[in-house]
Design a protein that fits this description.
It is a single chain. Helix 5 packs parallel to helix 6. This protein has helices at residues 32-45, 71-83, 94-102, 112-115, 118-128, 145-157, 184-193, 203-207, 213-222, 249-257, 269-310, 317-333, 338-361, and strands at residues 21-25, 50-52, 87-91, 107-110, 135-138, 163-167, 199-201, 227-231. Strands 1-2-3-4-5-6-7-8 form an eight-stranded parallel beta barrel, surrounded by six helices. The protein is of the alpha/beta class. It is built from 13 helices and eight strands. It has two domains: 10-257, Aldolase class I (TIM Barrel); 269-361, Chorismate mutase (Chorismate Mutase Domain, subunit A), CATH 1.20.59.10. The structure holds ligand ISJ. The site of the ligand C=C(O[C@@H]1C=C(C(=O)O)C=C[C@H]1O)C(=O)O has 11 residues, from helix 11, helix 12 and helix 13. Residues 269-360 form the Chorismate mutase domain.
Length: 369
């Protein structure tokens, strides 16, 4: 997959007040008092760089609070005047874009439920043509990297070069401690495809509860994300939306104080040398692992030919089961995570099956006359 985005560095459009960059504010603007009081306390921490608030809320079922609507833009403007903080809102239609821009909103974001729908994203992109405003694109609800990339491309094709992605977790059927599974590998894939794209983490939507937010925030920073978007409410216990995952401004301030900021690239020559030495060892081992995998696959091929010639099925469940049991417990004894060993073996097995399928189905060579 290729991703060529024409984007500006984050420092061109967002100057963090404090490290790390934190965008914060209530999930929803509920009343003018609630928004202004929250904004005031957040600004007083000196650690918040942008004020967020949802005013148009995509809700799962009708009849739930769907956001205060356009009136919230006036409150946000007042909060901006009062605190000096730039403001950001979620937009989900072309009309939202027009209204937000007319109200002087500094940064727009596209929500996860919009990113899943290319028609919606295109409508937003069309409304952005000829406008110079920063846009942040949340990942789609479902774990589909192409949809996320597609949304970034649509916004970028509209001429928006001040672009960032927001990692907010993905919905999953599996029961988990998280509201939305982080699935970090997808964000890492996006960063690998487009290293210059700033990525911000939204720990509030990943966690769904306050308790896990510090852990996920630290992890996001250690995965080289450029900032955090955290929901904060003056009194989360009475919040109209996302009550369980919002933090008071003072808890957020405390959380920020406890974060460890690590450098992406080492500068100390001693550290550089030590890392280089350890990485050399890893390089050697990786070469051996690949070599051994290739050897294993050539035996798999031989078994495939033998099975073909003797009318035996490719999948051998008993043998496979034995391998999984034995290797997983061997790995465990060597302090490897069982889940990791199992996943790795499953990948290897899938490749064995693929190769043997090719062998089984290869056209038999035409016999010489
Ligand atoms: C290699 C074989 O074929 C398949 C692949 C296996 C493997 O990769 O180890 C194990 C069992 C089979 O499902 C085999 O039958 O031994």
């Amino acid at each position: 997959m290729k991703l060529n985005l024409n984007i500006e560095p984050l420092s061109n459009w967002l100057k963090p007040q404090h490290q790390p960059l934190v965008i914060a504010g209530p999930c929803s603007a509920e009343t003018e008092e609630q928004l202004l009081a929250t904004a005031d306390l957040l600004a007083k921490t000196g650690k918040i760089s942008v004020l967020r608030a949802g005013i148009w809320k995509p809700r799962t079922r009708p009849g739930e609070f769907e956001g205060i609507g356009s009136i919230g833009l006036k409150w946000l403007q007042r909060a901006k005047e009062q605190t000096g903080l730039p403001i950001t809102v979620e937009v989900a239609t072309g009309k939202h874009v027009e209204e937000a821009l007319a109200a002087g909103v500094d940064i727009l974001w596209v929500g996860a439920r919009s990113t899943v729908n290319p028609f919606t994203v295109q409508e937003i992109a069309d409304a952005l043509k000829g406008v110079d405003v920063p846009v942040m694109v949340k990942n789609p609800v479902n774990p589909d990297l192409s949809l996320w990339i597609g949304a970034l491309e649509r916004i970028n094709n509209a001429g928006i070069t001040k672009l960032a992605a927001i990692s907010r977790g993905f919905s999953s059927y599996e029961k988990s401690a998280f509201r939305n599974e982080p699935m970090w590998e997808l964000t890492i894939q996006l960063k690998t495809l487009c290293p210059q794209l700033p990525v911000i983490c939204d720990p509030s939507h990943i966690c769904g509860n306050r308790e896990l937010i510090p852990y996920i925030s630290q992890k996001a920073l250690d995965l080289e994300m450029q900032g955090l978007m955290v929901e904060s409410h003056i009194d989360p216990s009475v919040a109209w939306t996302d009550a369980k995952q919002q933090l008071t401004p003072s808890s957020l301030s405390e959380l920020i104080d406890h974060l460890t900021i690590r450098q992406p690239d080492p500068v100390n020559p001693k550290v550089i040398d030590k890392l280089a030495e350890l990485r050399k060892q890893i390089d050697k081992i990786d070469d051996l692992v690949i070599q051994k995998l290739a050897e294993r696959m050539s035996i798999v091929d031989k078994i495939g030919e033998y099975k073909r010639d003797n009318g035996i099925t490719i999948l051998q469940l008993n043998r496979w089961d034995e391998i999984i049991q034995k290797r997983a417990s061997f790995g465990k004894a060597l302090k490897l995570d069982e889940d990791f060993t199992t996943k790795m073996l499953e990948l290897i097995h899938a490749e064995s099956i693929r190769r043997q399928t090719e062998i089984m189905n290869a056209k038999a060579p035409v016999a010489e006359k």
